[in-house]
Specification:
The structure is a single chain. It contains 6 helices and 4 strands; from the N terminus they run ααββαααββα. With about 160 residues, it is mainly alpha-helical. The chain folds into 2 domains: about 55 residues, no CATH class; about 70 residues, no CATH class. The protein has a two-stranded antiparallel sheet with strand order 1-2. Strands 3-4 form a two-stranded antiparallel ribbon. A hairpin with a 6-residue loop joins strand 1 and strand 2. It starts with a helix and ends with a helix.
């Protein structure tokens, strides 16, 4: 929303006589760009050269860009997600938590909220990869004890 003084200033600028040189510079700049079609509604829009080099899809408005994002980029879950580890880690973690009754094996703290405790390997995977999914190789630790354990291992 423009204030009244801003409107008056714009009106004064628009009423100023334009020199032929100024108009030529503006039209020359427009000639460097290109008219392209909106990727969603196929409305014709002008884009400057830097946008033509940077983007492959063009949108006439934020509404069209949002419509494209919703329709063409489905959310990925499970096996479709690029960070999917196969689901075994989650199942192993749940089994370890249940085996230790959601209690830290070092300090005895009980899990105040689901997901607070960490599932940790007693024997690191780098040492014994064959025990990676073994529940007996897992222990339930609170975040503080987990951090202390790994700091002690490093030193």
């Amino acid at each position: 929303m423009k204030t009244e003084t801003q409107k008056q200033h714009l009106n004064r600028l628009n009423k100023l006589p334009r020199s032929k040189e100024w108009c030529a510079n503006i039209s020359a700049a427009k000639k460097k760009g290109k008219y392209v079609l909106c990727h969603v509604c196929t409305k014709e829009i002008w884009r400057p050269p830097w946008q033509l080099q940077k983007y492959t899809r063009y949108f006439c408005s934020n509404r069209c860009a949002a419509r494209f994002a919703v329709s063409c980029k489905p959310r990925r879950f499970g096996t479709d997600h690029p960070c999917w580890r196969g689901g075994s880690w989650k199942n192993w973690r749940i089994a370890v938590m249940r085996a230790h009754n959601h209690t830290c094996q070092r300090c005895g703290l009980r899990d105040p909220t689901p997901g607070f405790m960490d599932a940790d390997h007693v024997i690191p995977i780098s040492v014994a990869p064959e025990f990676k999914w073994s529940i007996s190789n897992g222990q339930c630790l609170c975040p503080n004890c987990h951090r202390k354990k790994h700091l002690a291992e490093e030193s």
